[in-house]
């Protein structure tokens, strides 16, 4: 294993990537995870979209998982999947398995005043309706990353909305 693929990152996930099959596509392996909670954030639904976002929210709480041992190349896959609507930031989460605090990276919605944000996103509801489509979509996105001239980005992303 060379230094560019040596595990070095931990990423807090809270949306579609909670689904093991989705995470496996991004990582090209099974994810090692620990349950965690992120305080002072809220996970919103987004009108007309099937995936959630998080933004800072005083006294808020987002349940999710930390994927551990992520290499630089895998982190780059996360960046591609999350796109420009999200910003990767470092946050502190509380591990649910041992109550320890942990510094991790996560993806926060850039437009913190987005009028499309509302309510609370529900993972189980999403899983039943959208999980299979996301697995296929993420495969296409990562194929596009390998060969961006094969398809237009818009053609890949449009059906995901």
From TrEMBL:
SUPFAM superfamilies: Gamma-glutamyl cyclotransferase-like (SSF110857). The keyword DNA-binding does not apply. The keyword Cytoplasm does not apply. Residues 11-122 form the Gamma-glutamylcyclotransferase AIG2-like domain. It comes from the Eukaryota. One of its GO terms (molecular function) is acyltransferase activity. InterPro entries: AIG2-like (IPR045038), AIG2-like_dom (IPR009288), GGCT-like (IPR013024), GGCT-like_sf (IPR036568). Keywords: Acyltransferase, Transferase. Belongs to the gamma-glutamylcyclotransferase family. PANTHER family: AIG2-LIKE PROTEIN D (PTHR31544), PROTEIN AIG2 C (PTHR31544:SF5). Putative gamma-glutamylcyclotransferase. This is Putative gamma-glutamylcyclotransferase. It comes from Cardamine amara subsp. amara.
């Amino acid at each position: 294993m060379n230094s560019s693929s040596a595990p070095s990152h931990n990423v807090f996930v809270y949306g579609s990537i909670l689904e093991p099959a989705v995470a496996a596509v991004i990582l090209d392996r099974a994810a090692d995870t620990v349950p965690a909670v992120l305080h002072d954030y809220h996970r919103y639904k987004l009108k007309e979209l099937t995936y959630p976002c998080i933004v800072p929210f005083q006294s808020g709480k987002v349940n999710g998982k930390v994927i551990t041992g992520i290499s630089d190349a895998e982190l780059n896959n996360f960046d591609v999947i999350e796109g420009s609507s999200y910003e990767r930031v470092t946050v502190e989460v509380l591990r649910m398995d041992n109550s320890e605090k942990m510094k991790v990276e996560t993806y926060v919605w850039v437009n913190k005043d987005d009028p499309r944000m509302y309510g609370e996103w529900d993972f189980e509801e999403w899983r039943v309706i959208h999980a299979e489509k996301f697995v296929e979509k993420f495969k296409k996105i990562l194929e596009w990353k390998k060969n961006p001239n094969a398809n237009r980005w818009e053609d890949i992303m449009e059906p995901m909305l």
